[in-house]
Amino acid sequence: MGNVPEAPLADPWLAYFAERGHRDVRRVGAGVEGVVYRLGEGRVAKVWSGRPPAEFELTREVYADLARHPLPFAVPEIFDVEHHEGVLVTYERELPGVSMRADSAQANYERKLPTRDSDALLAVLRGLASVPGTDAMRRLTVQGDDRPLWRDHDDFRDALAALVARAVTRHGAALARCVPDFAAGVERTQKALRSLPDAPVAAIHGDLVPPNIHIDAAGRPVAVLDFGFHTTAGDPAFEAAVTAAIWDMYGPHAAEHTEELTRLCAHELGYAPATLTTYQAAYALTTYDLFGLGDDDGHFRWCAEQLRRNAVFTA
């Protein structure tokens, strides 16, 4: 008779939450940050596995700012925070729906852009553009940088141009080896940023890839999650430009989808094509080194390709 594997130990957090009145608690997922438990009544609890992000309290404030504004879809909201035996536990809104799509790194997207997807993207972009940028959003630091984006700036365009300068200083030499006329392209992008017209300041998610948009059975967006990667306050045209570029980053029709979605945002949302192109160059210049350097990193390759065909960068 073979060895019988030992039964897994009981999860003590199930009992912990049950003792606090959550009778239907169950574990629903686990990731890098921790384990998530559904509590019922539209709430979940996250048991953090390590230290929370440095800007955790600021992020909580940003979530509260978003939740106070009426939106046609749900956004994250942290209701309560506690510590149990040195472990952080957050009580949060349970977000409905399912991911719009798997990430393009895991699944190829068909050439024809589904109307359902484009309609959902436009609905999310319109919704977020209706949320005024707040002081908490301005105090956020985008991933890879060492200071709040808006520090020492009163204008999003200037703040983004300064971010480009800092990002290029980090590892720009690696990008320059892959992108012709790199220094001049950086200068053209910064000049274009500072020449953009005045724009409203709204909430910027900054990472609206399909897995971060939840839809219902009819394809309507019902939740937007995972704020934080490039979340800030700024020109809603920046959000539209970035979303058009990153919706399909790695599929066989990625370049065509970027062009099609950029045209769609210009037509449906009224953004100038040159503004969208400028923001797409800025995004590539500020995120290129966040996961790796060189051709062995997909995001780095994608950023280099974006710049090589960007009309503002290569003008």
What's the arrangement of secondary structure elements?
Layout: H1 12-19, E1 26-30, E2 34-40, E3 43-48, H2 56-68, E4 78-84, E5 87-93, E6 98-99, H3 115-129, H4 135-138, H5 156-176, H6 182-194, E7 202-204, E8 213-215, E9 221-224, E10 232-234, H7 236-246, H8 254-269, H9 273-287, H10 298-308
Antiparallel strand pairs: 1-2, 2-3, 3-5, 4-5, 6-8, 7-10, 8-9
Précis, in short:
This is Aminoglycoside phosphotransferase. Helix content is 40%, strand content 15%. With 315 residues, it is α+β, with helices and mostly antiparallel strands.
- Principal-axis shape equals globular
CATH class of the largest domain: Alpha Beta
Element string (H = helix, E = strand): HEEEHEEEHHHHEEEEHHHH
Stretches where pLDDT falls below 50 for ≥5 residues? 1-8
Give the full name of the CATH homologous superfamily of the largest domain. Aminoglycoside phosphotransferase (APH), C-terminal lobe
Which terms summarize this structure?
single chain; 315 residues; alpha+beta; Phosphorylase Kinase, domain 1; Aminoglycoside 3'-phosphotransferase, Chain: A, domain 2; five-stranded antiparallel beta sheet; three-stranded antiparallel beta sheet; 10 strands; Aminoglycoside phosphotransferase; Kinase-like_dom_sf; transferase activity; transferase
